[in-house]
Amino acid sequence: MAGAASTFPTVARVERPAGATAEPWLLRATLIGIVFVFFVLFLFLPLLVVFKEAFAKGLPVFLAAFQDDAARSAIKLTLLAAGIAVPLNTIFGIAAAWALTRFDFPGRPILITLIDLPLWISPVVGGLIYVLVFGAQGWFGPWFIDHGIRIIFAVPGIALATIFVTFPFVARGLIPLMQAQGTKEEEAALSLGANGWQIFWRVTLPKIKWGLLYGIILCNARAMGEFGAVTVVSGGVRGRTNTIPLHIQTLYEEYQFAAAFAVASLLCVLALLTLVIKTYAEWRAEQQLAEAARAPESLSTLNSQPSTSR
Amino acid sequence: MKRFTLPGFGLTLGYTLVYLTLIVLIPLSALFVKTQSGGWDHFWNSITSPQVVASYKVSFGLSLVAALINGVFGVLAAWVLVRYRFPGRRFLDAIVDLPFALPTAVAGIALTTLYAPNEWIGQFFAYNQPLGAWLAPHTPVGDWLREHAWSKPYLGRVGLKIAYSQIGILIALTFIGLPFVVRTVQPVIQDLSLDVEEAAACLGATRYQTFTRVVLPGLLPAIFTGVTLAYGRAVGEYGSVVFISGGIPFQTQITPMLIISKLEDYDYTGAAGIGFVMLVASFAILLLCNGFQAWDNRRKGVA
Amino acid sequence: MSIEVREITKKFSRYPALDNVSLKIETGELIALLGPSGSGKTTLLRIIAGLEFPEDNKSRVLFEGTDVTQLTAYKRHAGFVFQHYALFSHMSVFENVAFGLRVQKRHLRPSKDAIRTRVLELLDAVQLSGFEKRLPSQLSGGQRQRVAFARALAIEPQVLLLDEPFGALDTKVRKELRRWLREFQDRIKLTTLFVTHDQDEAFEVSDRVVLIDKGKVQQIGTPDEVRKNPANRFVAEFLDLPWSDPAVPAIA
Questions:
Q1: A82 and A146 share a domain?
Q2: Residues A40 and A86 in one domain
Q3: C42 with C89, same domain?
Q4: Which of A56, A70, B84, C145 has its CA 20 to 30 A from that of C91?
């Protein structure tokens, strides 16, 4: 499976003191310095910009940005689209992960590739394909329009485009995790007489809860932040079909920088929250794996680590 | 993993397939069909018009450069994050994912503001600053910069334009590709057995020799995968780039922008045509990546 | 080349891995470091190799009288064979064995032909002629270990250090390689130190055995000596020998 953006630790790392395999102190310091500078330049400064510019005209202007009617409707629309996309994609993610990691069937690699697809396609193309299906010149478009249902340039279109662009995330968070965890516990439950739902709720879910949580959070962050695909399907009418990112764009193009950054800071906080939860979830998962590795009969498979007899 | 021992196969696979068909397959097929609807000539013209071709160069060319930059710095960052212990390491490690979690529009306006002529970093490169003036020599790099990144002469002076130039696009594309190389290479470095490096040391290799002859070859597959991922992502990127690019035809237009402009002109077939090209390109990169991984797995044996 | 270690102390977190260990090994001897898991034997070997460093300022490692305590592994010129072979998986057998010769400083490096001759000689000595182009993944465990030996010997080390070299192999292969090691050492007379927890192996192969437990040397002697006169309770129990006399002091 291509892509490794889900990095849930699946093998505990055995620490060994580095004697002959460490770089000289000065080189290490230099490399760390270079990485620091690179990160600050590319990652940290943009963050700083958002928050500084958001408050550049002071707190009242910052707060006013959210009291604007257009802003409120944008927030509502975004929450609605995410509220539709995330639950549906979560169910999909769980179903797909279950099907792909618990069974072997022909066409499995193709399925895995299909799930990764939105990550490779430009979001603009992702929006375009829905316009081609539901737009005025699209396949089903005329039928819907005749029946008074607007898909494109309205909420359903936005929801669909959001679903398309974010459906891989929950699945990708779960698949490596469930793959590494194996099926032994579920099979044990089966032999004890549990049915499918019971196995899932009582055995699988507790094991995957952190990975699932991270997948949902990431899916949500991406859903609320989706820009390219939504630009294409929404028509960009201020106050009616603008999501938060589109609203930010509108504000920016009208030179209302402080307001634009104020709203942007909201999404920034969401992104940072995502990162915090991810770090915490990974830390917990690492701990769990370390405990399992220390247990006398551990089922974890360590790779070619040398014997630790001293 | 036994076949069908556990329950739920039919339900989960069924739901998955239906979902994928509705969300992915049907819309994608609309794309294929639409490209035919205006006839071959119209299709061919829309995807080969000079403006569109210029956008291919921008999108595909700069994405490659950005992916390569990320290749180098990504490996460095992954090594530092895995092998070294220093204050702030966890923080750096967490922040690597920022481009992945941050909405593209936010990244777009932040980067634009950061590098715009009178702001933050951009101001150091403006014409009336020493750095900007110093960067105007008659060298190949200077010539390229002048052709692609110079701001319009103002009061007879020129400076280096970062925002609204190809450099700005390059920076944005590097930003969004950063996590891909780091996160792909990190697990591989983590799994490296120190034994092999110790063996090399005992055999008389310096640390540099050990890294280049023993460690790096083992990392190359992951590096290739990461760079390919970063490339694929950069090629299709819209939100982060559209603000900083300025949208200058033939100079800083990225291909997704042209799709949107065609849609605004109600040229659905033209838009579908360009979209089709992008889709094929994305597929090609995806297959390249997966194919390489499969080849690499075969070459190493199943173990 | 003789090896001497003096007052080696090393701690890992709370417990001392090695506690004031001193030892002298004569040129050409084949010595076994024998002890249970966690006894410190591997740590001692790695300190001799330069892969780890002692903590006490008084600790010394001497190769033929020269103080090498502060030298890192790549300067010590000691051949090291790992339990899990540590072969370079992306290089062929030939390239693995040639590695130590190829990374030498330019003015010391032998010519390509000289390298080729030497590698083929060594592969012959370990009975792997014809395997030059194979990759480690295409070899059995015993074959991989023999490549590891050849690779370590390529740099013409003055001392050979083996960390449970046969531990990952199955019994039959283990016995064969044991025999091969003994014959090889008889021919070459290279000072060799190997770590094992298998007493049969230690007794069958070595000239002298060093018994280690809890970071301290418990007894040093020829296999016969140790079997006839176990120095303390640990040695007796570890070797399954009768033990009754508590008055005999342990050799520290």
A1: yes
A2: no
A3: no
A4: B84
| CATH number for position A66 | 1.10.3720.10
Closest CA to A52 of A266, A268, A251, A258: A258
Which residues on adjacent β-strands are paired with residue C217? C212
- Look up tokens 């090896």; give the residue: C3
Cβ distance of C83 and A307 shorter than 8 Å: yes
Q: What is the pLDDT of residue C240?
A: 83
How many folded domains does chain C comprise?
A: 2
Which domains are assigned to chain B?
Answer: 40-116+162-300 (1.10.3720.10)
Q: Which tens digits make up the pLDDT trace of A180-211? A: 887 888 888 888 888 888 888 888 888 888 88
Query: For C74, which residue in chain A has the nearest alpha carbon?
Result: A20
- Expressed in angstroms, the distance from the first to the final Cα of chain B is 17
**C-alpha to C-alpha distance for B262 and C119, rounded to whole angstroms:** 66
Cα–Cα distance list, A164 to A168, A223, B235 (Å) = 8, 10, 18
Say which residues have a Cβ less than 8 Å from residue B58's Cβ, sequence separation at least 6: B166, B169, B251, B252, B253, B254, B255
Which residues have C-beta within 8 Å of that of residue B14, sequence separation ≥ 6? none
**Pairs of CB atoms within 8 A across A/B:** 323
Domain around A126 = 58-294
A50 interaction partners in chain B (CB closer than 8 Å): 106, 109-110
Looking up tokens 């990550």, which residue turns up?
A119
Residues A103 and A242 in one domain: yes
The pair of structure tokens assigned to A67 is 């009291």
Residue C11 shares a structural domain with residue C69: yes
The residue range of the domain holding C5 is 1-77+161-252
Encoded tokens for A16 = 């060994």
Same domain, A248 and A166: yes
Q: How far apart are CA B58 and CA A266, in angstroms?
A: 32
C-alpha to C-alpha distance for C18 and C40, rounded to whole angstroms: 6
CB contact under 8 A, C103 and B206: yes
pLDDT digits (tens, 9 = 90+) for C153-203: 999 898 999 999 988 888 888 888 888 888 888 888 889 999 998 888 899
A24 to chain C, minimum CA–CA distance in Å? 11
Least confident of A142-151, A246-255, B189-198, C76-85: A142-151
Check residue C245 and give its pLDDT.
Answer: 65
| Burial of B192: CB neighbours in 10 Å, binned 0-12, 13-18, 19+ | middle
Q: What is the ipTM of this complex?
A: 0.85
A304 and C CB contact within 8 Å: yes
CA distance A20 to chain C (A): 5
Chains with 3 or more CB pairs under 8 A to chain A: B, C
Please name the amino acid found at residue A213.
Answer: L
Who among C74, C82, C137 is closest to B204 (CB)?
Answer: C74
**Three-state SS letters, chain C:** CCEEEEEEEEEECCEEEEEEEEEEECCCCEEEEECCCCCCHHHHHHHHHCCCCCCCCCCEEEECCEECCCCCHHHHCEEEECCCCCCCCCCCHHHHHHHHHHCCCCCCCCCHHHHHHHHHHHHHHCCCCCCCCCCHHHCCHHHHHHHHHHHHHHCCCCEEEEECCCCCCCHHHHHHHHHHHHHHHHHHCCEEEEEECCHHHHHHHCCEEEEEECCEEEEEECHHHHHHCCCCHHHHHHCCCCCCCCCCCCCC
**What is the pLDDT confidence band of residue B143, given thresholds at 50, 70 and 90?**
low
Cβ atoms < 10 Å from Cβ of A277 = 17
Number of structural domains found in chain A: 2
> How many residues comprise chain A?
310
Q: What are the DSSP calls for B120-172, one per residue?
A: TTGGGGSTTSHHHHHT--SSHHHHHHHHHHBPPPBTTB--B--TTSHHHHHHH
b/e burial code for range A51-69 (CB count within 10 A of at least 16 → b): bebbeebeeeebeebeebe
B24 in contact with C, Cβ within 8 Å: no
